[in-house]
Design goal:
Layout: H1 2-5, H2 12-19, H3 23-36, H4 42-60, H5 66-90, H6 94-111, H7 114-130, H8 134-148, H9 155-168, H10 172-188, H11 202-217, H12 220-233, H13 239-256, H14 259-275, H15 279-292, H16 298-312
Helix pairs in contact: 3-4, 3-5, 4-5, 5-6, 5-7, 6-7, 7-8, 8-9, 9-10, 9-11, 10-11, 11-12, 11-13, 12-13, 13-14, 13-15, 14-15, 14-16, 15-16
Length: about 325
């Protein structure tokens, strides 16, 4: 697989094989990448994923029949989304992530695949929101909503992201309305066979978003219960959402007056971050540490500081 994806290889057989790869084979590779996303090391996985995007782009420069061209465009959109998540969420390279998401939007739009275009806009919105670019995030969400009119399977997920963005900007009423729409869309959702690869623990996401809104609105006791429920709902290998939920619950515990539990939860998140890179989670943990510095003494945070120092090394 790596020989197939290495566009710099001079080995004739590998070059010939890459050029002759069929859309079905490329879709199979995309499925393999998707199955590896939850458990593979992000930097290691990004290498073949990025090469795959280049290979499909090269294939699109050659003459294709209309059906194969649309299939290649859909493939490139899907794998570019994965590349953006690996680059931005896991490795902290927001510039590369933006480029991948833009390529995914263009590819999906050209292929007429509204769901893929909406998904790419949603991830771009999350990236913008993480950098406190709220207006840009809401623009991406508005664009995603236009595409989601033709892709009801992702409308709940879209509304969940919208709820968290509004909660972070202090608009709790709009956030609550978005969360209600997310729940309604989830209750009415149906399976979309073309999105079988898109796994996103929506039940846990809804519960975690509820906790996020409760945390931002100051109902800390309710927030810690929601985060605990979300953690129980998560897929065992979904370490990224688990890290975020642990930090959210830790923050709620901190504000609810139980700093010992808060530090233990944060330490669990730090342990997960120490095993596999996740830049978004590390940023959230540092934000928790900054919040905890005021109400907690140095002794309670010493172990967490050591873990953060290890993450920075």
């Amino acid at each position: 697989m790596f020989a197939l994806l290495d566009q710099t290889t001079t080995e004739p057989a590998a070059r010939a094989r890459a050029t002759a790869a069929t859309p079905a084979e490329l879709d199979d590779l995309a499925d393999r990448f998707g199955s590896l996303y939850r458990t593979a090391d992000p930097a290691t996985l990004l290498t073949p994923v990025a090469a795959h995007v280049r290979m499909v782009s090269d294939a699109l420069t050659r003459e294709q029949n209309p059906d194969d061209r649309r299939r290649l465009l859909r493939n490139r959109a899907r794998v570019a989304i994965l590349a953006g998540r690996l680059a931005g969420d896991d490795l902290g390279d927001s510039m590369s992530a933006r480029a991948y998401y833009a390529l995914a939007v263009d590819s999906a739009t050209e292929a007429g695949h509204h769901a893929l275009a909406a998904i790419a806009h949603c991830y771009a919105a999350e990236l913008a929101a993480a950098e406190h670019l709220t207006a840009a995030a809401l623009d991406h969400l508005a664009a995603a909503d236009q595409h989601a009119q033709h892709a009801p399977a992702i409308r709940s997920w879209l509304a969940t992201i919208e709820a968290t963005v509004h909660a972070d900007r202090g608009d709790h009423q709009t956030a609550a309305e978005a969360l209600t729409r997310a729940q309604d869309a989830y209750d009415r959702s149906t399976t979309d066979a073309t999105l079988a690869w898109f796994e996103d623990d929506q039940t846990a996401r809804l519960t975690a978003a509820t906790g996020h809104l409760q945390l931002r609105s100051g109902t800390h006791t309710a927030a810690r219960a929601s985060y605990a429920e979300a953690i129980a709902q998560l897929h065992p290998t979904d370490r990224r959402h688990r890290v975020q939920c642990l930090i959210g619950q830790a923050t709620a515990e901190l504000h609810a007056g139980d700093p010992g539990v808060a530090c233990r939860l944060a330490a669990q998140a730090a342990d997960l971050l120490g095993r596999t890179p996740y830049a978004t989670g590390t940023a959230s943990l540092r934000a928790f540490r900054a919040t905890a510095e005021r109400p907690l003494g140095t002794r309670a945070l010493r172990a967490l500081d050591q873990q953060l120092a290890h993450l920075a090394a």
